[in-house]
Amino acid sequence: MLELVEIVRDFAIGMAQADARSPVAINNRSKKRLQPGIGPHSEADTVSLVGEELEVFEPERYAGRWITGVPYPESPRQRCDLCIGSPPEWEWAVEIEMLRFLGDTGKVNDNILMHVLSPYSQHRSALTDCVKLSDSGLGKREAILIYGYDHDDWPLDPAVEAFELLAGARVRLGARSEAGFDNLIHPIHSHGRVFGWELLSSEPETRWKARSELEYDRALDAMRESLKRFNRQRHSDKK
């Protein structure tokens, strides 16, 4: 059976391979062509592009087994981003979120953290996906995957650490898996990382409670600093 560390690593490889084909995304509103590269693509399009690469790169693992938009058994109107394997007992069920702080031209994305950290189910964030997926029984194993793009002023780490703290209060997370990708062709989205956590139980994680108060405070301080930079940049862009 595939391990999550392999899925995370392969996803990062698929990102780089798809990017090498110079795909061009189209802005949904303006219908304008964006700059070439995988970076400007939507989450759904990115997952599909990565899957196309991996079905060729690792056919034994993924050919005919990389299925997107799979309905949840009890809520068929809601769909899981990715299932790997064959129905009805998928080998893996994976919810995926994108963490892209900057747009095609470098403008700050005002609401990106909502997609990862919002506690409201209406936002369908990575945080609320943890409970939804863990309670679903959709896969033999289930995981959350977050991919994103690093920038000097916008490193991914504070947001990822905040996700771990908040998610740990709702479910039991496995150890973090991580893989990087770089040398992408887009001038803004040139490098980044993929993160993954297996959902081990729908019971709240106890490991996060055992962390020292100092470690907890450091993670919160890092998140506060990230939000401060976010607000400063947003106000600067509006001037």
Q: What's the helix and strand layout?
A:
Elements: H1 4-19, H2 43-57, H3 59-62, E1 66-71, E2 79-84, E3 90-99, H4 114-117, H5 126-134, E4 139-149, H6 157-168, E5 172-173, E6 177-181, E7 192-201, H7 213-238
Parallel strand pairs: 3-4
Antiparallel strand pairs: 1-2, 2-3, 4-7, 5-7, 6-7
Helix pairs in contact: 1-2, 6-7
Structure report:
The protein has 239 residues and is of the alpha+beta class. It has one domain. The chain is built from seven helices and seven strands; from the N terminus they run αααβββααβαβββα. Strands 1, 2, 3, 4, 5, 6 and 7 form a seven-stranded mixed sheet that branches. A hairpin with a 5-residue loop joins strand 2 (79-84) and strand 3 (90-99). The longest helix is centred in the C-terminal third of the chain and has 26 residues, at 213-238. The model is unreliable at 206-212 (pLDDT under 50).
Number of strands: 7
| pLDDT averaged over residues | 90
Question: Helical proportion?
Answer: 25-40%
* Overall domain count: 1
Give the quaternary arrangement of the chains. Answer: single chain
Number of helices: 7
Give the topology string: H per helix, E per strand: HHHEEEHHEHEEEH
Radius of gyration: 18 Å
Report how far apart the termini are: 53 Å
Percent range for β-strand residues: 15-25%
Global morphology:
globular
Coarse structural class: alpha+beta
Low-confidence stretches: 206-212
The major sheet is characterized as:
7 strands, mixed
